[in-house]
Amino acid sequence: MPMAQLLVDVSRLELQKVSVSNVKPSGRNQHVEKYDVALLDLLIPDYCMPVLFLFKPHPGDQIGLSGSEFVRRLKESLSKLLVPYYPYAGRFCKTYDHRIRELLCNDEGVPFIEAEIDQEMDKVVSFDDFQPVPILSGFKFVNLDAGVFFHDKADLFLPALFIQATKFRCGGVSVNMTFTHMLADGKAIFQFVKDWSQMTLEGHCTNLPIHDRSLSHPVSLLQSLIPSGNPRESHVETNHSQNGHAPLRPDDKSLGGGKRDRSDEGTDNGGAPASLMDHRAVRQDCADAKAAVDPALAVRFPILPAWARKTLHVKKASVMKLKQRAMANEERGLVPTALDCIQSHIWRGLCSIPSSLDGKKGCVYGVAVEGRARMHTPALPESYAANAFVIAYTQPLEHPSDDHLTDASKIHDIVRSVNPESWPGQLGRTVGILLNGAAIQQRAFFSSSWYRFPMYEVDFGYGKPVLVTGSAACSSPLTGYAFILPPRPGSDFLASVQMVLPPELLQALLDNSEFRSFFH
């Protein structure tokens, strides 16, 4: 096994030459002034989802751009792209009524932070076992805390998108794009990045994004869905004991654990300038901000008090072995996808964790399912640039089945069960599981796949990215989760799995030799 990468202490790093500006649309087409959010925009309200792109041209690459020129081009092309993507230059605000949240399409602009860091990229970021580096995220410059899951201050107007570009001593550049999850799902986010890439290289984008939330399901459905989300009505057993969880052990730093990562605090570069975050001009567009109760609290789920993160790399042979066995068994009739194999393996591993660690036995496993076609009649356009997904949960699995293919088939079936008739019940069950995670007798866990997104195909003129990953430095829903990512260029693995769990549960998985054998 190769030597572990020696990284610097990121808590001691400081940014240099910081500048903060607003990138506004280069022109203005006629567009609506605001959108009421749709129901599917509120599955994870007030959460900011950072995605980190690392660019580092090889010495032999004919790039012909400096890092500074690269960043200048990014800003210039972003300004052009925000004309068709005008909601991405807007702000979210509370309404304190049945609409819950509102997206102001006010062309306020995308906060864009530029900075430098006097260090080599590969001494700051671990490519093999990525751990968040909040100093690269830009949260502090828009007056947000990277360690907080829900950003719901009463007077806060959330930028739909903010970006930090950081130049390294080695010539590498990180571009961290943080999207408010109420703005867009993974499919829409990576379409935006693809369009930005095309705008940078060609001066135009061929995709025409659709932003009209009225095409999707309205927030008014939420009230009818919450009662059906009772886990007991969905055959998920609950435990009303207040002592269902064993005490959490101190976080294991070798797993990237933490209660709150504050490594982006204490720098000397100040916060956002007043002009960037002055919302007096937009406050009049929202409802009375002095109301006592925020309706979003009804769907605010608990988060982990302590967590750990680990990135694992899937062996190609592990998945191929399962597929070959399925192809050899004609009676089975189903050859699982790579994602079926990976997600079912995680599910089986979670079921194998001793109940003595957390008072739970078995697991219900959720899969984030994209639903532009699956959940709408007529289908939403592929270019719908908002949220269209649901987390579909399996029935409880107490012990792994004797045959891995059996569990892979269950994952396959739950994904394909999502349709225009079934999704309301599945969404209601999801809400119930997320809200009642502590009371459910089984572990609840979900995964979101970015596996098929063209993350490594984007090119802004500085070479294709050497790493793309989710970079959230906050905790997770009480259930824990995983991102399934495509393989890094030049690697010999099939996919990467970035897992977030309570430290003791993650350590139990890593100590399970059968679980680990699936990975490099």
UniProtKB/TrEMBL annotation:
GO terms for molecular function: acyltransferase activity, transferring groups other than amino-acyl groups. Residues 248-265 have a biased composition (Basic and acidic residues). InterPro entries: CAT-like_dom_sf (IPR023213), Plant_Fungal_Acyltransferase (IPR050317). Coiled coil: none annotated. Residues 226-276 are annotated as: Disordered. It comes from the Eukaryota. Pfam families: Transferase. Belongs to the plant acyltransferase family. This is Uncharacterized protein. It comes from Marchantia polymorpha subsp. ruderalis.
